[in-house]
Amino acid sequence: MFGNPAANVSKETSSVRQNQNGSQNQNCHESSSDLNYQLQCGGPTFYARANDVIELNDEDSKDITDAERARTSPAAAAIVPLRRWVALQENASMIPHAKRRSYQLGLQRAAILRKITLSYAIGELLQHLKFSVSSYSQAELLRLFSVDNFSVHVSTDQTSDEGWEVMGVDMISPPLCVQLTSNLFSISDFFESAVDGEDWGRNVEAVIARHSPFCCAKSVTEDETRDGRFLCFSLGVLLHFLFSGENRLDESVKAGTCQHESAEDAHRVDFILEQSRRPKSARIQSQHIRSVSSADNGHDLMNVNSTFRPLHCFGYTHAVSQVVKNLLDCESVGGLFCPDDAYPSLEAAIKDLRLLLREPNIFLFKSNDVLVIPAKGKFYGRSLEVSALTDAFCRVASSGQSEAYIIGGFSGSGKTRLVESAFNSVLAADGMLVYGKFNETSNSQLSVVLSALDDLCIMIADRNTPEQSQYIWQRLVSEFGNNFHLLVRTLPNVLRLASSLSSTLSRDGDILSQGEVNFFSLCDSIMRFMRVVSSSESPVMLFLDDLQWADPVSLGLVHTILSDRKGASCLFFVGNYRDNEVLPQHIIFGFYDWLKAFNVRITTIHIDGMPEDDVNSMISNALGVLPRVCRSLSRVVFRKTDGNPFFVQTFLRSLIESSHLKYDLRRKCWTWDIDSIYAENITPNVLDLISTKMTNLSQDVQTALKVASCFGTKINISVARDLSDTPQYLGLLSGLNKAVEDNFMDPVPDGSYRFVHDKVREAAYGLICCDCKDQYHFDIGTTLLFYYESQIGSTSGDLVAVIDQINHGVPSLVRSQSQRISIARLNFTAGSKAMQCYDYISAYTHAKAAILLLPSDSWRMHYDLSLGLYFQLAKSAYPSNKIDEAIEALNKIVKHADCVETRLNGYTLLHSILFNTCASNDTEQLLVTIVNVLKSLGEDIPADDVARRDVATQVRLAKRNFERESDDALLQMHKNSSKPNVAIMQAYNILVNLSFIAKPRLYQYFVARWAQFCLKSNVACKYVAGAYVAFAVVLCKDVSGTDARLGYRIGKLGLKMLHEDDTATSELPSVYLLYFGFVAVLFEPLQACIDMHRRAYKMGLQIGIASIAAWHKHFLIIREIHSGTNLLCIKDEIEHDLKMAKHHSMPHLVMKLSFYYETVLTLIGDESASSTLQLDREGSERPTFDRESTFLFCRIVTSTYFGYFERVKSMAKKWEFSIDAHSRMLNLRVAYISFYYGLSLVSLRRRKRSKNVPEKVIMMLEVLKTAADRSEWNFKNKVSLLKAEKLSCCLDNSAAEAEYDIAIAAAKSSKFIHEEGLACELAGMHYKRLKNNEKAVALFNRAERCYKYWGSQKKSFQMAEKAKQISLLK
């Protein structure tokens, strides 16, 4: 086809080949005892320069310059004849070393890897060779593909015991060179670290000398198929020699004749070569071949492999043997009768060789006699999903913004393995990874999240230095303050950050444990904890598996962290769930919606089974056979399993158990019969497969699996050991260990046992008869209980594990009364522990189970237990959103309580529930009940009508009592802590709070009576501060009155008592609400009150007083509007708080925030945005006056700033009529209404061109002057501005201008940027009326800047337009 290439070989090259062959014939059988031999011994030295091969004799080598040597070593490799290289590799792997045995194994593996590397290089070289079988004689073909026609490029580093790295290969005649590039410079670079075979995979690329006249591009035309098969056969011959050292078809170049080891081999080879040179049409027909074979003494000419011993006989793996065998199969009688496994082309063979290089641990080093699926570190068919997941985490780490990533899919589809693929990225980014798994059988799903976050504390302590841990500890203490004990209760391992300081928590812990803690406080604590410990420098990945078993509380906690408005948490949340096992109304879809509502980025994906090619790769790696060989088996498995990874594993193991898949010890490979697999009725149902296998296990193993399945996906080692010590479960541990051997369970680092998959646990649980499951659980629980009581003397073992098992049989399986009471007490103890960890759902479950066991006369026979259980039920039912059950439990407590103190504790909790749920009817009924309690305690409470008439008298009496005492006397007098007095104080506290909502006209009366009793009895308790501040509010109720100063004094005393009384910390939010909401705001800067409201809001959430926290948020927002806080910031804050209030069902807060949100949007000028929120003004059960007065007040504010003074006047009059005695205590609002109302009346009078202002303006001005006398900071600018407007209307221009200047300066001094803008605007209008356009423009421009800084785009635009109009007139 191309002519004979040998004719084109230069004389110099021929000389090189002859000299090389001669030296090889002389030294090919020499063995070296030391690998550090000199390459030139026994023959000339060779160097590779560019693409030429140069022969250098000893004399010539002296003339090589140092520069030439530096250039050729080691990058330009030395060349070793192939035959000698093979001999040296065998010697290298056999030489004993003084080093460890594993090092010797490493040497052998390195030798195998070099041979595969060289095989790949030879294959690439032959693939690019210009070649035609018909152009060569038999002798020429044998010379061309002779071992002696090839040489190996090796690195010249001769100091390594491991030998030289293969750098390339040369064909001497015709001259052709292949050089290799690898991701590893040399094997010795990673030899020590990879001696166990973990990291031996390589990516190798071949570089061909393209300019060679004997090089061609790859071609696959039909005419060249024959040549390609012969090249495959020739490669097989070379590789067989390379691996075995045997050359059964060796040739000796002597006078152009061919000598073989036997006449039989020669006859076979001659026949093959003859058939190969002929055209396809001229080849001998198969019948003639068979006749020749029969006549040839029984020798089969079609079976060329009979000449070559299989490589597995030499200790190589089946994969290596298969590659060489299939190469040799390619020239079975010229390719006429090639087996199906024969390679169709060199390209296919090279592909397999590259696979062997990439996966040596699977195909070269492993015996593969044990099925391991999936291969270690492998993940099949999920490259796109892995990339997307990794990108999402990198996005979180770089931006510092939390994200959620939810993965849905069928059971066994590889969801967990997909998430595990991102673990290395998390660790590489200095991130922290925590994991939790929800359990179908658990009553405590919230504990899964808390346990994962508790593990985060351990991880932080372990990865940081003591100094770094101390720094994190100090930040946490600073963040939580006196409430740090709440974090410790939630995450006990936080103490590991600084255990030496943990003793300082005991005092505060005892103090604050008296406060009621609910889900709000839990969310707040965890959210602030995550702000401290997570950041873009240390992102946290929280992985929760099996979200289909999660409950609203656990997902609500995750939502709170992700939706942190401050954005300080850097959390990457990943969740998996079985999307075929959830209904459309499942909580997980609501979780999606809420994350989107809070603008949290969320990614959801669904993963199906693997494609068929990936199933083939998995099976190939598991069996250690080449992918093309196991294709037929993979096709069957794929059809049966739909590519589900776990089902694939289970199905393959079932094939092994049914002997359809066997390991052939002689051939060292797995074998199978496709026809028998198709014929056999093997179920594809994974549960049936697993269950069938389990039923064939021994009784001990089945018992172990059944017991473990009763505890969920994991059984703790402590429980397993305790059970194994009992006669009923003696073989439990051995059965669990056998289950591990049978691949049903995995050992956990802490010694526990875990099912390898949920389906395995499901199959194990299915071994228990459906009607016997409750009895089986109950027997396990009672066995453990008896063991603990008899062996340990108490139930100090795993109490939760015991009681969870026993409760499966409650109450039907509990026979004796004593046993019922004993189990009820255990449930109470377990519920108390759950309450300490905020696990209210578990506590509720335990309380309900225990109450079912109580006898009908439990309140008489077991009073303390009944009281404790019903309190536990009430406290756990309310945060679990079972309000009716909580109220019912509290009513039973009140009914059966044997003392007033107990009833009051019940009333207190009932009041908290009613206050949070806005149940006004129940609130009024409770108020009547508390009045009756006070009467029973000796307090004379008159009827409502009498009390209303007596309000002034009682206030006056209480006022005199306070006026008679000095501050020191009042602080020192409270020392009486008798229980009856404390009970009365507690009852008054409840009564005052109830009257604030239910009977506001009696609020002042009850407060006055409370204050009088407080002073008269000298009682010492945590409610004293509340009595003082509540009475201060009463004295400050009238802005124009004279008692406000006394009220401020009493309020400050109450605040001081609060701060000095450690037991009163739980009352802080309530006392702060009264003091900073109604007292301090009249005397102290508005901004300072805002800060205290913010602090009290956080405190209220921390200790679980959500209703009080909501009131603080209400005051916080309206005070921010009053103080000129940037409107855009207020808008963002309200949007977040509105979503949280709706999420946590707080309708009263939703109502108020909705009004404020519309107000802020109107002031900004983005009124259309109000439609984006669904405001429910009528959905609240709050009294009408509260809703209406708030609505009117918000409209008065916006109408004033936009000049709608008629509307201000109308709404101010409505506001006066709408308020009652309760609303008049909102004194700051009264002052602001006076300010806005006064401005509107003056403006309206000016429009009528009247110089006389209404009398009401004078009244409003007096109210503001009184307020300014108490707080110049808050009200001086308002007094001056209203006075300036009055003077301007009366045409007293000079006096008006002076007041305008004072108003502007005072507003700026107080940092009321919005009121500075309003003063500039009104002053500008004044100067405009006086035709002083220059002054007016300057004031309008200043007003524009103020409004712009405030965030009011609409007002800023209006001021710019006014200034522009005046400029045009000028």
Automatic annotation (TrEMBL):
Highest taxon of the lineage: Eukaryota
A Pfam family per the record: AAA_16
Biased composition (Polar residues): 10-31
Annotated region described as Disordered, given as residue ranges: 1-31
Orc1-like AAA ATPase domain boundaries: 378-565
PANTHER family recorded: HYBRID SIGNAL TRANSDUCTION HISTIDINE KINASE G
Protein name, UniProt field: Orc1-like AAA ATPase domain-containing protein
Annotated organism of origin: Cyclotella cryptica
